[in-house]
Structures are given as C-alpha cells and as structure tokens.
Design a protein that fits this description.
Chain lengths: 181, 106, 655
C-alpha cells in the first residue's frame, strides 16, 4: 500500500466527526461518573474533566470564545471554589462515604431521567430544524462584545449586579453569627 | 469509513443526554454537594444547546453565545451561593444528607 | 411644571427607598423622612390646583406592553383624594415618630407605612383598572404586615392573616369584575370603559355583573358586611397603622374605587339595590356592636365600619357626591380620633376604657381635640360630620328607600350615644384604675391640633368640591330631615350624658335586660364564630372527605391492582427461578463472578430499591401516600420532572 493511498484515506476521514464522537464519549462517561461515584472528591475531578470536555465541544462548534471562558471560569475558578468547599465539609461529615450515595429516590429517579431523555430525543428527532450552516472559520469576538453592549446592555449590567450580589450574599451567609446571649 | 458529518441533532442529543444525567443526579443523589454538581451538569448541557443553535440556526447572529455567557455568569453565582448555603447548613445541622431534611413536610 | 404631574408621587418613593436602606440607622427618625416625603407630595399636588379647578384633566400615559398603557390621571376626584391622603399620611407619620419611639423593628414599620401611603397615592392617580388593582394588592400586603407588626404575639399574627385572607376573598371578585370589563371593552382605561358603556358597547347585564363583582372587592377592602370581620381584629397593629387603615388608605380605597367607577354603577339599578342593602345592614350591625365594646380602638373600629356603611348606602342611591364628602370628612375626624386614642393609650398604658376615666385632667389638648372629633362624628351642626351626614340622609330620603333612611336615623342616634359613651368614660369623672397620665410629646400633638381644626372646617369644602367636580345640584334641602337627624344625635348625646357622666341612670339596675344582648353584641353576633368554626371547619371537612374519597377509590384501587399483578408475576418468576435460572447460574458461575461488581451494584441499588418499593406497596399500601408526601425536596422534584416529561412529550409529538 503506497503512502499516497493512505494519505488519501486520511483525507476522506471526517476529523470533525471523529473528534465529536471521541469528545462525546469522554464527556458522557465522565458525567456519568460524576453522578454515580460515591466519593465526592472523585466526583469533583470528574466534574472538572466534564467541564474541559464541554469546552472541547465548544471548539468543535467554532465558539472559541465560549470555550476559553468555559475553561477559565468553570474549569478554573468554579472548580477551585468547589474543591475548597468540599475540603471544608467532607472530612468532617461522616455520613458521606459510608452508605449508598443515592437516596430512596433512586428507582424512580432513574426511570424519570430515562423517560426525560427519551421524550427529548424523540422531540429532537421529530422536529424539522431549519438548519443553515454558517461558513465561518471562527466567531468574531467583537460581535459578541457588540451584542453585550448594544442589544443586551441591560442584561449585561444586571449580570454584573448579580455577580456582585452573589459575592456579597455568599460572604454574608457564611459569616459566623455572633450570639448576643 | 466515517463520512457523515455531525449536524444539529447530534449536538442536541448529546446535550439532552448530559441534561438527563444531571436530572438523574439531582433526583437521586444523597448529598447536597453532589446535587449541586448535577445542576452544573444541567447548566453545561443547556450551554451546549445554545452554542449549537447559534451555529446551526439562521438569523441568530451571536445571540446563542451571548446567552451561553449569561448562563455561565448565573452558574458562577449559583455555585457560590449554593456552596455558601451548604456550608451554613452543615454548620447548623452537622450533615448535608438531603434525606435528613424534610422541612417541606411541616 | 404641570406636565410632570405624574412624577409628583416620587418624593414618597424616595422616602421609601431612604427608609428601606437607612432605616436601621434612622430608627424613629424615618417617620420624619416619610412625613417630609408625603408633605412634599401634598405641596406639589396643591400646585396643581389652578389646572384642576379650571376643569382640566391631566393625563399622562405610555405603553407598558402592547395593548395596555401605564397611565396617570389627575382630575377633580383624584386631586382631592390625593390632597387628603398625603396630608393625612404625613401627619400620621409625624405622629408615629414619637409614638413608635421605643419599639423594635422600626425599619420594617416605616418602610411598610410609607409603602402603604405610596401605593394609595398610586391607586388614586392610576388611570386604569389594572394599575389600580396592582396598588390595591400592594396595600393588602402592607396591611398584612402592619397589622401583624407585633408578630411575636399570636393574636397579632393571626389578625394580620385574617385581614389578608378576608380581603383576598373580595379581591378575587374584584379581579373577576375587572376581567369582565376587559373582556367586554378590551381596555382597562376608565375613559374607554365609560365611553364604551355610554355608547352601549357593553350590555347592561355585563355592567351589572362587573359592578357587582367589583363591589365584592370593595366589600372586602372597605369592611362591609359580611367581610367586615377583619377590621375589628386589625386593632392588633400599632395605633398609627389603624389610623392609616381607617382614615387615609385601605378602607377608603374601596370607596374611591366605587366613586371612580360611578358612571358604571349609575346605570345598573340591580347593583345599586344590592349596595344599598349591604350598606344598610352594615350601618346598624356595626353601630350596635360599638355600643357594647370595651376597647378604645375597637369602638372606633366598629364606628368606622358603621360610617363606611353610610357611604355605601349613599352610593347605593345615586349619591356619589355625598359619599365622597363623607369619605373626606370621615378621613379627617377618624384620623383625629385614632391618633387621640393612641395618645391616650400611650399615656394610660391600656386600651380598656373601663380602666380609664379622668384622662382630661392630664391630657387637655388631646381631650379637646378628641371632643372636636367626637362632636363631628356625632353629627352636631357646625362640625364637618354634620354636613356630609346630612347630605347622605337627604340623598337617601329623596332617592333611597324609606327603610334605609330610618335605619340611618337610628344609627345616627346610636353613633352619638356610643361616641359620647366613649368620651365620657375615658376623659371625665374619676380615675378607675391606677395610672400615671401625662400629656403626649409635641410631635404627637401637632397632628392632633391640625386634625382638630380640619374636623371642624372640612365640612366647608362642600361648595368648592361641588365646583371642582362640576356638580350642579344635590339633594333638595328638607328641614324635616335635618331637624330629625340633629334631634337623633342630641338624644344619643343626652342618653350618654345621663348614663355615663351624670350617672342619673344606673345601668346596673337594668343588668337583667341588657346582659343578654350585651353578650350577643360583644361576641360580634357570633358571626366570627360562625365563619371560623362552622364555615371554615366544614369547608375543611368536606374537602378532606373529597380527598379521602379520591384516595380510597382511585389511588388505593391502583395500588391494590399493582400489588396483585406483582404477586402474580412474582409467582411466575419463582417458577422460572427454580427450574431455569438455577441450573443456568451454576454453570456460568465463573462469568457471573467477573460481572459481580456490576450486578452487585445493580442488585443493591436498583433491585433492592425495587424490592423495597414492592414491599412498601404490598405490605403497607397506606404508606404509599406518605411516601410521596415525605417533605423531601427530591421527591417533589421528581414530580416536577414528570410534569416536564409530559410537556415535552406533548410539544414534541411523542404520543
């Protein structure tokens, strides 16, 4: 088999499809691991991996900016936050690793989520999507910026306020309450 | 030989699968923190949805991506508050097992 | 200047925001801020006088969402209400500055007080029913919170609940009425509704239905029979709250709404008849209760219900103008009476009039102001109450039924009697308990003095008001009516004088005669008992029976069926287990072992769960209901997900 033949095979392969399936498999399996494992620390690691794989999906969808934000905020900031609080709580909570990680709802919960997936996938299948592929190599970030500062400017400001409020509220909630008595 | 390309439906199916896994977690996990993780999974699934719509549907410009960013903001706020609340609950009750809370009954 | 009239309530809103943010630092000074805010609105409203008196109608509206405008409107009616309400609100807030001095939770108190005033102002300047309804509901919320201000006391908390729920019953009717009007005209706007009504776009039956429903809301808010039960209990709140509810806001909102929609009521004779009947019942009903009440504020509460009944009767016989006049006059003298009551209770330390007596010696200013208010409500010529009561009586005599007229006359006598009974018992004669009376601080006296002046002179507003509202004729003057009403009032006063001041008639001698009706009236005709013990209880019982029936026949049936079928299936599986699986399992033990991890997992979590479920189903089928109502969030979320699945399936065409 000549090298050129192999190369032509390679050209025929749709790398996008392969990448999608590989990333999807990783994504789904890590997500499944997040909910199935009884060990919270492992669950966190799997969750971070899930975030990273989601970022991969965004790359495939040519939404590079979202992918980067996903990696920075989710895989970076939020993960650190989660790890910290897990460390704060878990080593003192004896109830976590001893028993089943699932509540009494396991049976119905699995049925309900399975049915949900069934319903949604049939819906996706039944709907005729009016698809037009945009032939762009990557998204123009300035478009996003313009969107934020023109049409969605109020929502943008509100998001800022929301973050501020969440920050203040988190501090306020956690603050030890001094008992007057 | 893999030739058929991936369309909108595949992304939607992927995101709905992740979403269902999230629902499964929310409904069945015992620990509040695990439930929070599952909610994060659901939010991520929604984001995949939005970004996919942004790419495949006409007339949306970058609205899908903008919404995805908003959801990331909300998710950040949500996880911060959620963790803060769990810590306070833990401080008060000494446990974070959801089954031990049946306040809705009273 | 005049174009921006719709922004005039803003100072009140600014006060609200300031109090909400800095309330904890300001403490009772929030009252001053609120008073200033309300006073600014008052002054700004006064500047509109030239425009309003020239007959202009100031309207400003913009689109809220397609089809519905957000609008503000000031005409003669809303202008005068605005003036009265802002004036009273600022005085009441000034009064609360000292009255509430040593209380806790002042931020909550003043925020809600100012919000109460602000929503009343919004209700007045709204130019459509939807906006009015929003303000109306905000007032309901404020009343709930303020009546239940001392929520540590269970009676106060339940009084707040009672007020909220009772008025809510009326509000549902009112919303129905508004929606009937909207369905008929496609608009919430007053003018559009009126023009549709006058052009015959709405049929008479629709108008009757809508007005009747809206009157239902008024019955709730303005405490008419049979939804009056919340008002006497509302006394649990601090006194300024009572003054606000009785004089400026809340109960007056209902009357304002009726007067505002009067072009609709005028057309519908049927509704007017109902209104008159309800009003007549309320007038006498409340006055009789007031005679035997022993709590200072409760007497005043019953008198409010009774006076509101007067207005309702007037509205029931085409007398929108006398009703408005009485709304305004009553606002002044009732605010005066309540603030006076607060001043007395503040110094004596109890609200029980049997323990007072001789207060005038300590509180001369309060006592004199109270005397003015009492004379006014009794309907003595020269005071404001006389003017509007007289108008109402004339109106009823001319347009209403004679029966209502006699009832009103009788009630006039009773009013004079119980008000002077109250006055004599509190302010005159000797002390009946050990208390240290003292005059109230200046900031409580200023409102009293101002309101005392208003209670004397607000009757003079009659002619300017007629000019303002373009009313050319009122009911014909009739000497018989005037003299008989004055005579009735004088009989009442003399009766009270004889019994409670001069003590010529000793009521103890008549105990055997009085004690029966006394008990009856003091228990409020057992009406509250009737509502709480019989209607509520049986309602709960009947709904419980229905649920039980559903549970027994439908849910239990399903459970029994499921249990039976599971039993049958399990019998079959048992057979299969013994003969087929057992043999198979032995040979494939090695393979099974490798998968034991997985099967163990499945076994424990899924099969065991299933088995546990079957156990619950078969062994204790009664607990199945408990299982779904276990108060755990995830169980409830499960049902949410089931609902979402159904919705998605319906939309996506799964079925």
């Amino acid at each position: 088999m000549s090298l050129s033949l192999i190369l032509s095979y390679f050209e025929m392969i749709n790398w996008h499809t392969i990448a999608f399936y590989i990333i999807s498999i990783f994504l789904i399996s890590s997500a499944v691991y997040v909910v199935l494992t009884g060990n919270i620390v492992r669950s966190v690691i799997a969750l971070i991996f899930t975030f990273l794989m989601t970022a991969g999906i965004y790359f495939l969808l040519q939404a590079e900016f979202i992918a980067v934000v996903q990696m920075l905020i989710y895989a970076g900031a939020i993960s650190v936050l989660i790890v910290f609080s897990v460390m704060l709580i878990t080593d003192r909570d004896k109830n976590i690793n001893e028993t089943s990680p699932f509540s009494h709802n396991l049976f119905f919960g699995s049925i309900a989520s399975g049915l949900f997936y069934l319903a949604v996938s049939i819906t996706v299948h039944n709907t005729s999507w009016n698809v037009t592929l945009k032939n762009k190599e990557f998204t123009d970030i300035s478009l996003i910026a313009r969107g934020f500062l023109t049409e969605n400017v109020i929502a943008f400001e509100l998001a800022a306020v929301l973050l501020l409020v969440a920050l203040a509220a988190a501090i306020f909630i956690i603050k030890e309450v001094k008992d007057d008595n | 030989m893999i030739t058929n390309s991936i369309g909108l439906s595949q992304y939607l199916l992927l995101s709905s699968l992740i979403f269902s896994i999230g629902i499964f977690g929310v409904l069945t996990k015992k620990h509040i923190i695990s439930v929070l993780f599952s909610i994060e999974l659901m939010l991520n699934a929604v984001n995949i949805n939005l970004v996919a719509f942004n790419k495949f549907l006409p007339d949306v410009f970058v609205a899908g991506q903008i919404f995805a960013l908003f959801i990331i903001v909300v998710a950040a706020a949500e996880i911060a508050i959620g963790l803060a609340i769990s810590i306070v609950i833990f401080r008060g009750k000494g446990t974070l097992v959801l089954e031990d809370f049946n306040l809705l009954k009273h | 200047m005049g174009d921006l009239f719709w922004l005039y309530p803003l100072p009140l809103l600014a006060a609200l925001i300031i109090i909400f943010i800095f309330g904890d630092q300001l403490q009772e000074k929030s009252g001053l801020i609120g008073a200033v805010g309300s006073g600014l609105v008052f002054i700004l409203s006064i500047t509109l006088a030239p425009a309003v008196f020239s007959g202009d109608k100031l309207v400003y509206s913009f689109q809220w969402f397609p089809g519905v405008n957000l609008g503000f409107r000031i005409d003669g009616l809303s202008w005068i209400m605005l003036i009265v309400v802002t004036f009273l609100v600022s005085l009441i807030l000034l009064y609360s500055y000292s009255y509430m001095e040593h209380e806790k939770g002042l931020r909550r108190f003043f925020s809600f007080m100012v919000l109460f005033g602000f929503s009343m102002v919004q209700l007045i300047v709204a130019d459509n029913l939807l906006q009015l309804f929003i303000a109306w509901e905000i007032m309901g919320l404020c009343s709930y919170s303020l009546i239940g201000f001392y929520f540590e006391k269970s009676s106060a908390a339940s009084a707040g609940k009672k007020a909220f729920l009772t008025t809510k019953v009326g509000d549902v009717f009112m919303l129905l009425g508004i929606l009937v009007l909207y369905a008929a005209t496609g608009s919430f706007n007053y003018d559009e509704i009126f023009s549709a009504a006058s052009s015959g776009l709405i049929s008479l039956s629709e108008i009757a239905l809508a007005t009747l429903f809206i009157f239902g809301g008024v019955v709730g808010k303005s405490a008419q029979f049979p939804l009056h039960i919340w008002l006497p209990d509302a006394m649990e709140g601090p006194t300024p709250v009572s003054a606000l509810i009785h004089a400026a806001a809340m109960v007056k909102a209902g009357m304002y709404l009726m007067i505002r929609l009067y072009p609709l009521y005028e057309v519908s004779e049927f509704t007017l008849k109902i209104i008159m009947i309800v009003g007549t019942i309320t007038v006498l009903f409340a006055a009789l209760m007031a005679i035997f009440a022993d709590d200072f504020k409760q007497v005043l509460a019953f008198s409010t219900i009774s006076q509101l009944g007067y207005m309702t009767v007037a509205l029931g016989c085409l007398g929108a103008f006398p009703a408005l006049l009485h709304v305004i006059n009553h606002a002044f003298f009732k605010a005066l009476l309540f603030l006076g009551a607060g001043s007395v209770i503040h110094s004596v330390g109890t609200g029980d009039i049997r323990k007072m007596g001789g207060v005038f010696k300590y509180q001369k200013i309060t006592g004199s102001a109270m005397l003015l208010g009492t004379l006014s409500i009794a309907g003595i010529p020269g005071f404001s109450g006389f003017v509007s009561k007289d108008e109402i009586l004339l109106q009823v005599y001319e347009h209403g039924s004679l029966f209502s007229y006699y009832i009103l006359l009788l009630t006039g006598m009773l009013t004079a009697f119980y008000m002077f009974r109250l006055y004599f018992m509190v302010f005159t004669r000797e002390k009946r308990s050990d208390y240290h009376g003292h005059e109230s601080p200046v900031s409580m006296l200023i409102p009293l003095v101002l309101l005392g002046i208003a209670a004397v002179f607000s009757g003079r507003l009659k002619n300017p008001l007629m000019g303002l509202l373009n009313i050319t004729e009122t009911a014909h003057h009739n000497n018989i009516v005037v003299y008989s009403s004055v005579a009735a009032a004088l009989i009442g006063i003399v009766g009270a004088l004889l019994i409670y001041y001069l003590k010529i008639i000793d009521i103890k001698n008549y105990d055997s005669v009085i004690s029966g009706p006394k008990k009856f009236f003091q228990n409020r005709y057992y009406f509250d008992y009737f509502v709480e013990e019989i209607i509520c209880k049986y309602f709960v019982k009947i709904s419980g029976m229905i649920t039980m029936a559903i549970e027994r026949w439908i849910f239990d049936g399903i459970v029994i069926f499921a249990a039976k079928s599971i039993k049958i299936i399990s019998n079959y599986t048992k057979v299969a287990d013994q003969y087929i699986v057992d043999g198979f399992v032995n040979k494939t033990a090695a393979i099974t072992k490798t998968f034991s991890g997985i099967s163990n997992f499945i076994d424990i979590y899924i099969f065991d769960g299933a088995v546990r479920f079957i156990e619950i189903v078969t062994v204790r089928k009664g607990e199945i209901m408990l299982y779904w109502n276990n108060g755990k969030i995830q169980t409830y979320l499960l049902w949410t997900v089931v609902g979402i699945i159904l919705i998605v399936s319906l939309i996506g065409g799964v079925f």
